[in-house]
Write a structure and sequence with these properties.
six-stranded mixed beta sheet; 333 residues
Length: 333
């Protein structure tokens, strides 16, 4: 490290800040240090640092891969989390853990400094385990009771309001909600679905709308079947809000197959959809786009802040979506 400091013309402390990510360093100074490291062939010894500091500088993202496919929004969260962790001197590993016992086994190895839980449910049993284990953790999502917990979540109620504002301003009065069904009793109270449905029913009542809720599994074929059922059972529906990213393209195809053109007969607006998925359906689908990248970055920053400063306040962030219109909504006929 002293060789790097001499070559870069900085102090040994500055090199330590760059190597360990303990404090922010001006970009120009960081560039000089990293260039000196490259010239000298200097490499961080992760094991030595872990032994000396009693920290691994690794954060685990826990994603229940057997129950949930890693869709575009989840992938953007993971990618942004990894990027943010690198900037803070940490590494991210993805744990595809599906039950509490398996998570307990992973934790017993002591390989990580902290954990971020994804796909959070209302009364998530993983939270109790992490509290019992005295592990630093944060939630990408929320439980019903967030007392003493750190979380960064999407503002699903705000997204529903934004979507309904747009559709009702176009003149729609019969707006359905199409939800993804995570499946299985373990996913009762799954945050995004529960909060979106609750907000939709409340907003529909407030606006004097007659609610219609349709569900399907999270895949294109199930989405197509749900569209057929909606067209048959509720032919008067002129607009649909969709919180089922993985079934969205099939749902649109199903509407077209049922003789409904988009947006002339039925307007379709995604909720918490990745920007990358707007063009996957044919026609392309407008959406209240999920703040996936910001969600991943803020979650990591909040956790690392508490790892480096145990007195730091818990993170409580609700992030709004952004309305992106690409032509799948229009005034009803």
């Amino acid at each position: 490290m002293q060789d790097v400091a001499d070559r870069a013309g900085v102090s040994l402390t500055t090199v330590s800040f760059v190597v360990n990510g303990t404090k922010r360093v001006a970009p120009s100074t960081r560039a000089r240090v990293e260039e000196a490291m490259a010239d000298l062939g200097y490499r961080r010894n992760v094991l030595a640092r872990a032994l000396a500091s009693r920290r691994s500088h690794i954060v685990a993202l826990v994603f229940p891969a057997l129950q949930h496919r890693l869709g575009s929004t989840a992938l953007s969260i993971v990618t942004a989390a990894a990027r943010a962790a690198t900037e803070r001197g940490f590494n991210v590993v993805l744990w595809p853990v599906d039950d509490v016992a398996q998570l307990d086994d992973y934790l017993s190895g002591g390989l990580v400094d902290g954990v971020l839980l994804m796909e959070v449910t209302a009364d998530d049993p993983r939270v109790a385990l992490l509290v019992e284990r005295d592990v630093h953790f944060g939630l990408v999502g929320r439980t019903d009771d967030t007392t003493g917990l750190s979380y960064v979540d999407m503002d699903f109620a705000g997204m529903v309001a934004t979507g309904l504002d747009h559709l009702t301003e176009l003149g729609h009065r019969r707006v359905a909600l199409f939800l993804g069904d995570p499946g299985g009793p373990a996913w009762s109270g799954y945050g995004p679905v529960a909060r979106t449905e609750q907000a939709y029913l409340a907003e529909a009542a407030r606006r004097g709308l007659d609610p219609v809720v349709v569900r399907s599994a999270q895949d294109p074929r199930s989405g197509r079947r749900a569209a057929t059922a909606l067209a048959e059972d509720h032919p008067d529906v002129t607009a649909v809000l969709v919180l089922n990213e993985l079934a969205l393209s099939g749902f649109v195809n199903g509407l077209v197959a049922a003789g409904r053109t988009v947006p002339d007969d039925v307007s379709v607006l995604g909720l918490a959809t990745s920007a990358a998925d707007l063009e996957t359906a044919d026609p392309a689908v407008s959406a209240v786009v999920a703040p996936g990248a910001e969600l991943g970055a803020r979650s990591v920053d909040g956790l690392v802040d508490r790892l480096t400063d145990p007195t730091a306040a818990p993170t409580h962030d609700l992030l709004p979506g952004t309305l992106r219109l690409v032509g799948s909504t229009a005034a009803p006929r």
